[in-house]
């Protein structure tokens, strides 16, 4: 039996003009019967690196009895010249999170996945203390269980005050070890006594992993990298999935 948490994450491959470009991570989120794929905005549109793919592909399980069976599912990023993803802003500027609605009817009938819901989001920020244990599910450098098509997990802690937006931005810090390809990964915390409506997914969705942080003044020869990352607060999904 595969753990339900592993079925929430999806490996993302970006394409531009039929050319494969990058690997990334994402996860499923549902709201009012609508299904979304969530990832980092820079995975699908990034001005600084001039990364502008026109479609992405995710891998889907297609047999609950055999996790080795999967299929690729293509998602166009533009329709009639307009972007199909939802992105948000706050008073500090753009938020590095994007949500793409998936047409459920287009999925294979046997698709196997799990999705977070608004129920999995925190109601109050004071429910999480600094130093709390968390997990980051993703596909670092594209690495994963290629036989069963599931992500790997990194462990870390909340590395900044969860109730305070770090430096006024809409994210908090984690100290999980991450690599390229982890962008868009869900950051979760185990619920010790989950309510019945959490079903077989007893996890809080805290954030969306975005990028590693470093210090511009760091001596490249004397100082190690900080080993810190920014994760955007997951409650932005309530805005991105609102109609």
Strand proportion: 35-45%
**What's the β-strand tally?**
15
**Largest sheet entry:** 7 strands, antiparallel
Main-sheet strand order equals 5-4-1-2-3-9-8
The H/E string reads EEEHEEEEEEEEEEEEH
* Radius of gyration over C-alpha positions, nearest whole angstrom: 17 Å
Low-confidence stretches: none
Q: What sort of overall outline do the alpha carbons produce when their principal axes are compared?
A: globular
CA distance, first residue to last residue: 36 Å
Residues in helices, as a percent range: under 10%
Describe the structure concisely for a colleague.
By secondary structure, the protein is mainly beta. The protein has helices at residues 41-44, 236-240, and strands spanning 9-16, 19-31, 34-39, 55-61, 70-76, 78-79, 82-83, 85-90, 93-102, 133-138, 152-157, 171-174, 186-190, 203-213, 228-233.
Q: How would you characterize this protein structure?
A:
- The chain contains 2 helices and 15 strands.
- With 243 residues, the chain is mainly β.
- The N and C termini lie far apart (36 Å).
- The strands form 3 sheets. A 7-stranded antiparallel beta sheet has the order 5-4-1-2-3-9-8.
- The mean pLDDT is 91.
């Amino acid at each position: 039996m595969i753990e339900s948490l592993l079925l929430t994450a999806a490996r993302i491959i970006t394409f531009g003009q039929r050319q494969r470009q990058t690997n990334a991570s994402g996860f499923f989120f549902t709201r009012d019967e609508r299904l979304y794929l969530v990832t980092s905005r820079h995975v699908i549109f990034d001005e600084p690196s001039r990364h502008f793919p026109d479609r992405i592909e995710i891998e889907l399980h297609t047999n609950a009895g055999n996790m080795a069976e999967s299929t690729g599912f293509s998602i166009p990023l533009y329709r009639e010249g307009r972007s199909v993803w939802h992105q948000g802003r706050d008073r500090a500027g753009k938020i590095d999170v994007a949500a793409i609605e998936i047409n459920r009817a287009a999925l294979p009938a046997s698709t196997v996945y799990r999705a977070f819901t608004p129920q999995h989001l925190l109601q109050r920020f004071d429910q999480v203390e600094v130093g709390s244990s968390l997990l980051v599910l993703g596909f670092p450098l594209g690495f994963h269980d290629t036989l069963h098509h599931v992500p790997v997990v990194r462990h870390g802690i909340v590395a900044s005050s969860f109730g305070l937006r770090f430096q006024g931005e809409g994210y908090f810090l984690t100290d999980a070890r991450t690599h390229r390809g982890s962008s868009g990964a869900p950051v979760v915390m185990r619920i010790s006594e989950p309510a019945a409506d959490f079903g077989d997914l007893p996890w809080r969705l805290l954030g969306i992993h975005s990028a590693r942080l470093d210090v511009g003044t760091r001596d490249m020869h004397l100082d190690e990298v900080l080993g810190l990352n920014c994760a955007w607060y997951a409650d932005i999904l309530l805005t991105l999935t609102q109609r």
